[in-house]
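Hey team,

Filing this mostly as a record. A colleague (T.K.) asked me to run one chain through the structure pipeline before their review meeting, and I want the input and output archived in the tracker in case anyone asks later how it was produced. No errors, nothing strange. Just documentation.

Input sequence:
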Amino acid sequence: MSFDEIKDGKGANRKRLTGLKPAMPKKRPLLEGIRVLDLSRVLAGPYCTMMLGDLGADVIKVEAPGRGDDTRHWGPPFAKGGESAYFLCANRNKRSMTLNLKSDRGLSILKSLIQQSDILVENFRVGTLERWGLSYEELQRLRPGLIYCTITGYGYTGPYRDKPGYDFVIQALGGVMSITGDALGEPTKVGVAIADITAGLFAGNAILASLYARQRTGEGQRIDISLLDSEVAWLANVASNYLISGERPQRYGNAHPNIVPYQTFPASDGYFALAVGNDLQWKKFCETLGHPSWAEDERFAHNAARVENREALLDLLNDLFATGDVATWLAQLDAIGIPCAPINTIDRVFEDPQVLARGMKLNVPHPTAGSVPLVGSPLKIPSAPVEFRLPPPLLGEHTADILQELCGYDLEVIEELRSKNVL
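Output structure:
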């Protein structure tokens, strides 16, 4: 493993890692030979394209010269060398090039890259590519069979199509804040940008389905993913509860609207999570913890009754759990197979033996930071494991490589383009 001297997007000397080995045994990646042109920024689009990169696709991340993806500046914290933690979380397995898409020459280069790509992902405001003369029809003319995915706040249709969309605003509009948080507290957002993440996941699903369809038909697809659609879709059972009953769902804090007991409980030294998912588990729970009569009590014998008599049961359980510490209760519950867990802080998550055993914490060599810790991929495919081939790129790190490889430019032309602020 070594470092080569390169010029970054600003023309400064940087070191680029070479010889980075995959974290898992070398096998042919599932998306080997697929090229993704990534014009997206922030989180939803980059998270989608990172997954495609993990599966072996060649992802070319096109960024604005001098500044790049907005998240490069979202900090602190920053890794040694200045890369933001936020940017690092969603941009491994990509090559970065800078390109001024407001210039005619920049758009010409973009068209050349489109002609050699299988997938185009972007999250500009609605209609941006059309204004550049790159409608879906024109994209298909440039590259027949191209899969074109847009990710926007509200989608390409409807009265909100032209509004800017941010995860926090979408969580408010889409209803999740109304069902999150303490019953007597204020509406609360989820602690991560969950609308962005799920939009990226849905986009990835649609892209993979489109790739499969293209094998059969040779045709491309136009994919329209919105953060709002995604957020409403994952309301799941809560949405269904409303649609079936007509009753507005309420906030239950850490409790569940349809299952009891299924929430956090305070022990003598802290909180833990308990999930009794069915009546057989409930009976085993009561017998083991010394209260078999609770399983026979008509108020609590069946889940529907426990939901109806939630407060009475919670009073009994709170009194019981206050008599022991978290470790004691978890040991007893684990011994009888009742789902339970400590309330881990994030530092404890990345010390958890199961998290570590599943490879969900990585240390990836990086050209300026030396090494950066990253979250691993949840895509476990033993017959074709994901690979961590490239660390999150420096801004414009691969500009020259990509232009030489795909456009046939020599270094003199590349330096000319750089001097004219095209790159």
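Quick notes for T.K.: The chain has a mean pLDDT of 93. The two ends are 29 Å apart (CA to CA).
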